[in-house]
Amino acid sequence: MEDTTSCPICGNKLRTVKLTDKHPIGKTGTFFERTCSGTNHSLQFFTDETTKKVVSLRFSLDPKYSKYLEIDYLNKRCRIYCMKNGEASYIHIPKMVDPDFPDLEKLKERISMYVVFS
Fold this sequence. Notes:
Elements: E1 15-19, E2 31-36, E3 43-48, E4 54-60, E5 67-72, E6 77-84, E7 87-93, H1 105-116
Antiparallel strand pairs: 1-2, 2-3, 3-4, 4-5, 5-6, 6-7
């Protein structure tokens, strides 16, 4: 995924923070963290400064911020992060899920079914 400076969900300008340490998925380098906390969503990009490619993306799937999808573009896999009764749990998906921005309704339905049946 190409780097962007505007939120693909709401179109607002992303807030940018430059990171210079190890990325959460284990890659080292210099990354830009870009975030948006718009109405009913939270989005976080990590972009490699050298390649200008998004290496990971995390965004909320519900207005209560209790369910997130994390997409690892480098390793081509995803995981669903859920908060239930104050406990965090993860559901690993061994393939890429490509979000359809800004229309995320179909993706939200698919992820909800994944959570129910896991």
